[in-house]
Amino acid sequence: MTRNKSSHNDGLSLVEMLVALGIMGILAVGVARFSSNFEKSKARSTAKTHTKNINKRLLKFVERDMKFQTAFSVQDNGLTLEITRRKTFDQADTDATYVVRYVTRCQQIPNDIRSILRDRVYAVSRLKQAIYSSAHTCFDRLKDICNDSTYPQVFIEFDDTDDRIPVYRPNLFPDFATQTAKRELRKGTAGTAMCSGESGGKIQVMVNSAYLLSAGDSSESVSVLSDQILLTTDNIAGVTLLPNE
Questions:
Q1: Who's near 175: CB < 8 A, 6+ residues apart?
Q2: Which terminus, N or C, of the chain has the lesser number of Cβ atoms within 10 Å?
């Protein structure tokens, strides 16, 4: 009887051990999935925040320049905004001016950046499909002039420099040509475009920026944030924020 009782207890211990191992395995899978989802969510949130800041910074520059403008023009189907503005913040000093241009262009994606995109389950050919879409006003204006190996970039250019010109930092949005810029991509921003239009004494300025989502579902590898402002053209007294798209 004692031997049988011992065998019975050994059997229960083995069953209990197998059950425990099974539970531990389920918990391990659950923890791994939770950790993966958390990291993806964190990466997506970081990319969105970083891209939102790019939009806000660009629009702040435009708002600042338009406050001191003496002339401006919208060119290239709205993809270039040229502003002639005072050099100083003294509204009475109208003699010293310079020209600043906000220009959206298509830039070739560097080869080392392509490898990053592939590593993130993001085919380079999807850039045009996802970004240059009719759903986004500024990107839509680029779809016929930008090819699959390019990304949209906003340049801030000016024809003069001295200590009375305010700082434009950075002056490229985004820029993948430097080490710093590669870190920008890892934060998620994949391209930016600005477009403008004038109507009824007001100018509407919009920025579209695309950012990369975390690797996993390649069908939603890119998302776009749109921000816009509405400015009066007579040395702005105020700025109207328009709803995001």
A1: 153, 181, 184
A2: N
Contact (CB, 8 A) for 60 and 156 = no
Beta-carbon contacts of 191 under 8 Å, excluding residues fewer than 6 positions away, are 127, 131, 139, 151, 152, 153, 174, 209, 210
In whole angstroms, give the CA distance from residue 17 to residue 28.
16
Which of 191, 226, 186, 188 has its CA nearest to residue 207? 226
| H-run or E-run covering 46 | helix 2-67
Average pLDDT of the chain is 74
Average pLDDT over every residue of 69-86: 92
Determine the Cα–Cα distance for residues 240 and 245; give it in Å rounded to an integer: 15
* pLDDT, tens digit (0-9, with 9 covering 90-100), for 147-204: 777 888 999 998 877 777 888 887 888 877 665 556 656 667 888 999 999 888 789 9
How would you list the strands of the sheet with 69-75, edge to edge? 69-75, 80-86, 97-108, 150-158, 172-173
Let me know: does 182 contact 113? Beta carbons within 8 Å: yes
Q: CA 50 to CA 189: how far, in whole Å?
A: 7
Burial bucket for residue 94 (CB in 10 Å: 0-12, 13-18, 19+) = exposed
> What distance in Å separates the CA atoms of residue 153 and residue 104, rounded to the nearest whole number?
6
User: Where exactly are the structural domains of the chain?
Assistant: 2-242
Tokens of 208: 């579209």
